[in-house]
């Protein structure tokens, strides 16, 4: 795992600071002693880098905004959560050493049907459940000495304000309309699935569970309107999606899913983008749609905006444009490859609609498995 994280980080850092690696430095292979174990008397301090602080960074330093995903609080943090966050922390510390003004954003995604269901299963309420799991993430990051600067929760009032203002801007652009949707829905993904994405018996290829048939009156985002703009963005910015093989990755086990989720961006977009539902009539636990309290905003349309709302000043009234001026665009979204579509297709189109700048890079890392991390 350590070797994999090291390689991924080095490749990513090369993209941000090529001159630094012009000497083609080659690190010696990492050798671990299997018999070594951490004991109770082991000093944690010797493990920690001292570059976590930004107190000495000049006020005119070049900004560098890095984000992890906002972790979903249906369950406590796991190895995959730590994998992404440790990698992001290493990059953040390295950028601080380069003298940049780093803003390291992480947080929790707390709305949606799956959260309400998880809370009910635990005999709890959604707010109490979210408080408990969100705190478990903060505790873990403290134990791992993660040097984040901003921790955003999508249940924060400032986040709701930013989401509603963003929604209104997209609506004013003419990119939101109301229509009926009849399709197959994966509760775990909280997403409607196209038939060609599914396995036998309408099973979701991610969760291997059957999708359920639903018919709803929803609000839709006109994603198809931005197909050409997204294609042009990818052609003009070859580093927008990294590693580069994410554009053409092929996976034999879930061939159909991978071609739509990960092979993505160029091939997925060229196959024809479809408008997607951005509200739910059957979900109460979420941010109400402005001027229509019978619907809540779709969890991904909500959560992606946490990267912006995290930049807002807690001491001031939240304002979208003022918040954007506090550090946006993000220099790097570091995510797992399973959520690449949301970050490299949906998110850029949403930002275009709202008239905001796109992030500079989306890096989709592989999964931790028993044998390897592709």
UniProtKB/TrEMBL annotation:
Identify the domain of life: Eukaryota
**Keyword Nucleotide-binding found:** yes
GO CC aspect terms: chloroplast stroma; mitochondrion
Limits of the Methionyl/Leucyl tRNA synthetase domain: 65-203
Question: What Gene Ontology biological process does one annotation of this record name?
Answer: methionyl-tRNA aminoacylation
Q: Which InterPro entries match?
A: Met-tRNA_synth_2 (IPR023457), Methionyl/Leucyl_tRNA_Synth (IPR015413), MetRS_core (IPR033911), Rossmann-like_a/b/a_fold (IPR014729)
Record keywords, A-Z = Aminoacyl-tRNA synthetase, ATP-binding, Ligase, Nucleotide-binding, Protein biosynthesis
Q: Which GO terms describe its molecular function?
A: ATP binding; methionine-tRNA ligase activity
Q: Which family does it belong to?
A: Belongs to the class-I aminoacyl-tRNA synthetase family.
Q: What is this protein called?
A: Methionyl/Leucyl tRNA synthetase domain-containing protein
Give the source species.
Sphenostylis stenocarpa
């Amino acid at each position: 795992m350590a070797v994999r994280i090291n390689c991924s980080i080095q490749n990513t850092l090369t993209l941000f600071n090529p001159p630094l690696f012009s000497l083609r430095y080659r690190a010696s292979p990492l050798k671990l002693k299997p018999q070594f174990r951490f004991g109770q008397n082991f000093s944690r301090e010797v493990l920690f880098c001292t570059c976590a602080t930004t107190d000495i960074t000049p006020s005119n330093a070049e900004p560098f905004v890095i984000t992890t995903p906002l972790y979903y609080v249906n369950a406590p943090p796991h190895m995959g959560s730590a994998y992404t966050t440790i990698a992001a922390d290493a990059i953040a510390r390295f950028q601080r050493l380069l003298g940049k003004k780093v803003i390291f954003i992480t947080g929790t995604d707390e709305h949606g049907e799956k959260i309400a269901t998880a809370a009910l299963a635990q005999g709890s309420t959604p707010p109490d459940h979210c408080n408990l799991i969100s705190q478990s993430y903060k505790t873990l990051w403290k134990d791992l000495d993660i040097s984040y600067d901003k921790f955003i929760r999508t249940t924060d009032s400032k986040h709701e304000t930013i989401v509603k203002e963003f929604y209104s801007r997209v609506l004013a652009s003419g990119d939101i309309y109301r229509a009926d949707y009849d399709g197959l829905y994966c509760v775990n993904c909280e997403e409607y699935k196209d038939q060609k994405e599914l396995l036998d018996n309408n099973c979701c290829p991610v969760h291997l569970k059957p999708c359920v048939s639903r018919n709803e009156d929803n609000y839709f985002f006109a994603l198809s309107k931005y197909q050409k703009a997204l294609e042009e963005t990818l052609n003009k910015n070859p580093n927008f999606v990294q590693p580069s093989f994410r554009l053409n990755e092929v996976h034999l086990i879930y061939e159909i899913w991978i071609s739509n989720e990960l092979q993505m961006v160029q091939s997925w977009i060229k196959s024809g983008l479809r408008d997607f539902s951005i509200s739910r009539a059957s979900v109460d636990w979420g941010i109400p749609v402005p001027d229509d309290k019978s619907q809540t905003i779709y969890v991904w349309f909500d959560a992606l905006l946490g990267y912006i709302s995290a930049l807002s000043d807690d001491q001031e009234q939240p304002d979208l444009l003022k918040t954007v001026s506090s550090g946006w665009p993000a220099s790097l979204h570091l995510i797992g490859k399973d959520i690449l579509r949301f970050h490299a297709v949906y998110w850029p189109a949403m930002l275009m609609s709202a008239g905001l700048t796109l992030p500079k890079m989306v890096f989709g890392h592989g999964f931790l498995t028993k044998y390897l991390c592709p």
